[in-house]
Amino acid sequence: MAIAVIMPKQGLTVETCIITKWFKKKGESVSVGDILFSYETDKAAFDLESPVDGILLDVFFNDGAEVPILTNVAVIGKSGEASDLFNPEKVTLNATTSPDLSMHEEHPSIPPKEDLTIIPSATDSRIRISPRAKRIAGEKGLKYNNLQGSGPNGRIVIRDIEKALSGTTTIAQAVYPVGVEYSEQPLSNVRKIIAKAMHSSLQNSAQLTHHMSADVRLLLAARQKIKSNISSGMNQQDITLNDMVCWCVIRALEKSIDINSHFLGDSIKIFHKVHLGIAVDTPRGLMVPTIKYANDMDLTKLSKELKSVADACKRGSINPELIQSTAATFTVSNLGNYGVEMFTPVINLPQAGILGVCTITNRPTDIGNNIFGFIPYIGLSLTYDHRAIDGGPASLFLKEIKEQIESFNY
């Protein structure tokens, strides 16, 4: 029996999705888990996998098409089976009824995952590469034939492609095509959305940034203790420095609720719970998922949630409702791992502020009795909307973050 492939519903407010690229063609055989196509909402990008084995009998929408959710996109079945009955252009539904989705219940869409694709090379050797890694390599023009994979059984996965693109790989063959001066690629919908949001943020708000630094000796000592516990085999959550900083930011927001707010033009919505946004760099672009009710979590729970939403963004399976700018009340963006000492983060409107976390540097400091020593300091860059917050309260909030870091106790 033929089965329709429908455009999934991604979040309560999403009404349409855009098909960015088909990976299977009409008439090709497909297996459960094969990526059929990639699609994007106005917030994120996803891959749709085949729910069944069979033949891709028909495709009803091409690359670039904007498709309403729960609409038949394609049909999978056995060779010779009719597909016209599934064509949305030929199916007329009563306006007072909903589409009959019973045919999909037996074979629901499978969440995106890195399935294994084995591609024969010119010499009949087999290149093990995940479909998503293959797609990113193709988009970037990267040759991966001799790239050594770090996944199971030598499979090439996304992190291997990212290392090759960043230049940290030692494989000589992982280079761009010889003789190509440059390549031009259209912007993805996600990139367009990010560009539009950043430009709109700077155009439509009065943003100002204050910089401060905090002594992180207590954080580093706590981090060392955690690493020692893990090395000794203890059941210990791997809490990172970023987790600790986020914890301190949440504590500061509880004391400075004016900045835990949305500026709405004629009014300010002040939140009494902290819904923390965290900037995550993904292969598809920057995403900012939200940890709801972060102030109600202990540090271990917060650490697990931060890792969970970051992983979901990188897999492309994050709930679209969690990456809307209105979902978070305040955002943290950490560029410390990149060695950035100071930067100006851009606010996710309508939020009133965002904290940029910078790298740790050692600075000479008077440690008492006119004795100087080198102390590790972390840079903190607070951008706030001056329409919502004045400079004095913003500075006091940044100072409160500093004090929370310098008095950290774990």
Structure description:
The protein is α+β, with helices and mostly antiparallel strands. The chain has three domains: 3-105, OB fold (Dihydrolipoamide Acetyltransferase, E2P) (Beta Barrel), CATH 2.40.50; 114-186, Dihydrolipoamide Transferase (Irregular), CATH 4.10.320; 190-406, Chloramphenicol Acetyltransferase. Helix content is 25%, strand content 27%. The chain has eight helices and 20 strands. A six-stranded mixed beta sheet has the order 11-20-19-18-14-17. Helix 2 runs parallel beside helix 3 (158-166) and helix 6 (241-255) packs across helix 8. It is globular and about 90 Å long. The termini are far apart.
Shape: globular
Just name the CATH architecture of the largest domain. 2-Layer Sandwich
Biggest β-sheet: strands ordered side by side in the sheet: 11-20-19-18-14-17
User: What is the strand tally?
Assistant: 20
**Helical region count?**
8
Query: How many domain regions?
Result: 3
Termini separation comes to 59 Å
Write the H/E string, N to C.
Answer: EEEEEEEEHEEHHHEHHEEEEEEHEEEH
Mean pLDDT: 83
Helix fraction, binned, reads: 10-25%
**Rg, nearest Å:** 25 Å
CATH class of the largest domain: Alpha Beta
Structural class: alpha+beta
What ranges have pLDDT less than 50 throughout 5 or more consecutive residues?
92-125, 170-174
β content, as a range? 25-35%
By CATH's scheme, which homologous superfamily of the largest domain applies?
Chloramphenicol acetyltransferase-like domain
- Say what the CATH topology of the largest domain is: Chloramphenicol Acetyltransferase
Largest sheet: 6 strands, mixed
